[in-house]
Specification:
Blueprint (H helix, E strand, L loop, with lengths): L14 E6 L1 H4 L3 E5 L7 E3 L16 H4 E8 L1 H6 L4 E2 L1 H11 L7 E5 L9 H5 L11 E2 L1 H10 L4 E4 L13 H8 L3 E4 L16 E6 L7 E7 L17 E2 L20 E2 L1
Parallel strand pairs: 4-6, 5-7, 6-8, 8-9
Antiparallel strand pairs: 1-2, 3-9, 3-11, 4-10, 10-11, 12-13
Length: 260
């Protein structure tokens, strides 16, 4: 995690300071002060649900799930307030097949190219309102009711669009005991419209009563995670299929991945 990674609220960036030195202490280390919701991280259900589970209560099974990518990058380039809609989801399914139950649905908006410029990444206007893409609440509710998804993920600061004042998507998602993943990186390395045969693996830091959790996301392709100063490449292996995995025409078996 780098000190230059954009924060949702200015002043909440990670801070690095000297810890110990070899000369004085015999060993070297740094001291970091960070807010939980910085960098690539999981929004556990407890983030917006007073009765929700914390990140350390999410199971491995919940974090290792199939993933699909909804590409709205062209629209986002012209309209930073655009959101993933039910129409986008229906268009995806007409082309790639039904989104499986238990899937993580990821938005690709192309926002990652702005991450080195906090002002561009946050997109504040003169009134301080932020402008970046997210999921529409109708799309979130449709995915929960019709597809029983496990998670939503975005390559922006929030699964809600930046101009949201109510955080309705996070309230609905967390209220359904589902988690979000924010600040995903390098999603442009995925082919357009990754079908349900791809697998997403999200490992959340296990910190007691940690509402979010710093997260690393893997796919069958090598997908790096933003770290502010450098990208840590994930190594993955494909183990045997998990029990109960389905195989059907146009909806291939989801292969779990292991993050080393």
């Amino acid at each position: 995690m780098g000190e230059d990674f954009p924060a949702y609220v200015p002043g909440e960036e990670a801070v690095r300071s000297p810890g110990t030195t070899i000369e004085a202490d015999g060993y070297y280390q740094q001291r970091w002060s960070i807010y939980e919701h910085i960098g690539t991280h999981v929004d556990a259900p407890a983030h917006f649900n007073p009765n929700g589970r914390f990140a350390d209560e999410l199971t491995t099974r919940e974090l290792m799930v199939p993933a699909v990518v909804i590409d709205i990058a062209d629209r986002a380039a012209a309209d930073p307030d655009t959101v993933v809609t039910v129409a986008d989801l229906r268009t995806y399914e007409r082309r790639y097949g039904r989104i499986d139950d238990g899937t993580a649905v990821l938005m690709y908006s192309g926002w990652g190219v702005k991450v080195r410029d906090p002002n561009a990444y946050r997109g504040p206007d003169a009134a301080g309102v932020l402008h970046f893409p997210g999921f529409g609440s109708d799309a979130c509710e449709w995915l929960l009711r019709r597809r029983k998804i496990r998670a939503l993920g975005v390559d922006t600061l929030s699964i809600d669009p930046g101009n949201s004042a109510t955080f309705e998507v996070r309230k609905v998602l967390n209220g359904a005991d589902r988690y979000g993943i924010e600040n995903l990186a390098n999603m442009d390395s995925l082919p357009p419209g990754v079908p349900p045969s791809s697998s997403d693996s999200s490992r959340s830091s296990r910190v007691q009563e940690d509402r979010p959790g710093s997260s690393r996301i893997g796919d069958q392709l090598l997908l790096d995670v933003r770290s502010g100063e450098q990208d840590h490449q994930l190594s993955m292996a494909n183990p045997d299929p998990l029990p109960g995995e389905r195989t059907s025409e146009g909806n291939a078996r989801s292969t779990p991945v292991v993050i080393a």
